[in-house]
Write a structure and sequence with these properties.
By secondary structure, this protein is mainly β. The protein has four helices and twelve strands; from the N terminus they run E-H-E-E-E-E-H-E-E-E-E-E-E-H-H-E. Strands 3, 4, 5, 6, 9, 10 and 11 form a seven-stranded mixed β-sheet that branches. A five-stranded antiparallel β-sheet has the order 2-1-7-8-12, with no helix packed on it.
Length: about 240
């Protein structure tokens, strides 16, 4: 499962890797969460294109999105069989630019967060699927999800799943739904190479989506946790005495 991830490379570095013509300017993100707008790369008229979509796929046949389960991940082993993903894997594959992701290790009744990043830096690409949902009044919403697979041996002690990572020389193979059918593209759904990622424990600051700064990815113990926002003070009972505070 991939429930949070990060983008810390500059827009220029991401554009150089994915080679789309647009020149978007978007902020660094240290704690991307489901339902938020996220960048993807897809093919439009045979060429790579940048787009912002909602993280959480809504199949085109859904009548009421608010009553539909949030699909942030698609299991690679069954993606071609599940009604929610069957059309997307055939016709609408995409890439998620990323610089890593987070997982929580269950241990002793608590969950310890870990940051998982490429050993030699990013950005990298997660395999994704996208859809356009059209509402009853013609409104359109583009959404997407990340394809996952079994964790490699390096990451298995933390979690049994991981995002599918697509190598740069396979970008077009994954994206080109016209020339590459779903079954053939599924050959890319596999655990990442063992030496690709490093993982280290971080503070529980990542648990709060409001925390979105470099402090989130600091190794545990190397930096203080961001202080929670102050609570609003309770109004004092009026005793008839004037006060400066």
């Amino acid at each position: 499962m991939c429930g949070r991830y990060l983008i810390t490379s500059s827009p220029e570095a991401i554009r150089n890797l994915f080679r789309y013509p647009e020149e978007p300017d978007f902020p660094l993100r240290y704690n991307i969460a489901p339902t938020q707008p996220v960048p993807i790369v897809r093919l439009v008229s045979g060429a790579r294109a940048f787009a912002l979509v909602r993280w959480g796929l809504i199949p085109a046949w859904v009548k009421e999105p608010n009553a539909f389960s949030l699909l942030i991940n698609a299991r690679g082993e069954t993606v071609g069989d599940k009604p929610a993903f069957r059309n997307a894997i055939r016709y609408r594959r995409c890439l998620f630019p990323a610089d890593g992701f987070y997982e929580w290790k269950s241990e002793g009744g608590r969950k310890r967060p870990f940051c998982i990043r490429p050993r030699h830096g990013g950005p990298i690409a997660f395999a994704g699927l996208w859809e356009t949902w059209t509402g009853p009044h013609g409104e359109e919403v583009d959404t997407a999800c990340i394809v996952t697979t079994a964790a490699n041996h390096t990451l298995a002690p933390l979690h049994d799943r991981m995002p599918v990572v697509i190598a740069p020389d396979a970008f077009d193979f994954w994206l080109d739904c016209t020339r590459v059918d779903a079954l053939t593209a599924a050959a890319l759904i596999a655990p990442a190479p063992e030496n690709l990622f490093e993982a280290y424990e971080i503070s529980t600051a990542v648990n709060r989506t409001a925390n979105d700064s470099p402090a989130v990815i600091a190794p545990l113990g190397s930096a203080p946790e961001p202080a929670p926002p102050p609570r609003a003070a309770k109004p004092k009972k009026d005793d008839g005495q004037a006060s400066l505070f």
